[in-house]
Specification:
Blueprint lengths: L8 H36 L1 H52 L10
């Protein structure tokens, strides 16, 4: 059974921008986590320093993966928005072609 899907393209574009910004922020955070872990490791020294360095490095890996996946979702969403806009514009042209004097507006 088919179901109607309603998509608000402008809202998706806003979400896309937010996801992209979040992905970049997470990427920056990963670098900061790795650097902080190294600094703590050097400052503490010994076993505690090694543990702090390992935690910082591990957290940096987790945040790097999260950043990459966030940016991947943003890329998929970008492709979806572009596809929907193209399809919507095509439908608007088809509808508008049958009615002279009316302007079809893609949403």
């Amino acid at each position: 059974m088919s179901h109607l899907i309603s998509v608000q393209l402008d809202a998706l574009a806003v979400l896309l921008d937010e996801l992209t910004a979040l992905g970049r922020q997470l990427d920056d955070e990963a670098e900061l986590s790795a650097s902080t872990g190294r600094s703590l490791g050097a400052a503490l020294g010994g076993a505690a320093g090694d543990a702090a360095g390992d935690v910082g490095a591990g957290w940096a890996v987790v945040v790097t993966v999260l950043a990459a996946r966030t940016l991947a979702v943003a890329a998929v969403l970008d492709a979806a928005v572009a596809g929907y806009r193209t399809a919507d514009a095509g439908l608007a042209e088809q509808i508008g072609a049958g009615r002279h004097g009316l302007v079809a507006v893609a949403r």
